[in-house]
Amino acid sequence: MSAVTIWTYDRVPPPPRGFVRDLRLRWACEEAGIAYSIRTVPFHDRSGEHLARQPFGQVPFMEDEGVTLFESGACLLHLARKSDILMPRDEIGAAEALQWTIAALNSIEMVSVPWWFLKVSGADHPGLTGWLASRLDHIERVVSEREWLAARRFTVADLLMADVLRTPLVRDFGERPATAAYVSRVTERPAFGKALAGQLAHFNASDVG
Ligand SMILES: N[C@@H](CCC(=O)N[C@@H](CS)C(=O)NCC(=O)O)C(=O)O
User: Fold this and answer.
1) Which residue ranges form the domains of the chain, and what is each CATH number?
2) Ligand 1 atom 2: the closest Cα is on which residue?
3) What is the mean pLDDT of residues 180-207?
4) Ligand 1 atom, smallest distance to 113 CA
5) 63 with 4: CB under 8 angstroms?
6) Ligand 1 near 57 CB (within 6 A)
7) What is the pLDDT of residues 26-48, one digit of tens each?
8) Would 22 disulfide with which of 8, 70, 100, 154, CB 3.0-4.6 Å?
9) pLDDT for 132-155, tens place per residue?
């Protein structure tokens, strides 16, 4: 039994397989060589123990030797403390990685999630669309000037930013070649491939029986 346990749903429909946020935690563990096991909560019955561990009835959440955590960003930062592959040890590199991790969540995903949610609901909001375009244009400039967000090398910030930016609707929203190259560069990492394969195998197995 491994020390780190990652919780996800027992099943989800075909989309969003490959995009459920437990993938972020799997990916971080794969990068850092941290052994992990997967446990599940029911997709259709979010109550009781699930709400005690994740107050919004979402996934992922995790456990690590008595530490229990929800919010994928918090889980990633917790895992990143265990490995300098994810988080540089020097003060400046660590501060940069922390800054860009929060930026992925609070400057990009904070806009991209409501945007795609309204889009798939058939209720496009022009103001929100313009706001997202502006944020994506700024990221396009950033990644056209540097290969990695922090510390001149891959960190947990790239893992999270690439995961936010690889959302299909976001990828299809305008031509941003530096961002496309950045997302490819980060997701070509073998650890991402293993995490993705693991999540797909998990949800595909739930179709059987
Ligand atoms: N801010 C949360 C968002 C978690 C989240 O949106 N999880 C999705 C799966 S990727 C979910 O459980 N959605 C169902 C819901 O929101 O009810 C995090 O990053 O952990």
Assistant:
1) 4-85+191-205 (3.40.30.10), 91-189 (1.20.1050.10)
2) 71
3) 98
4) 6
5) yes
6) yes
7) 999 999 999 999 999 999 999 88
8) 8
9) 999 999 999 999 999 999 999 999
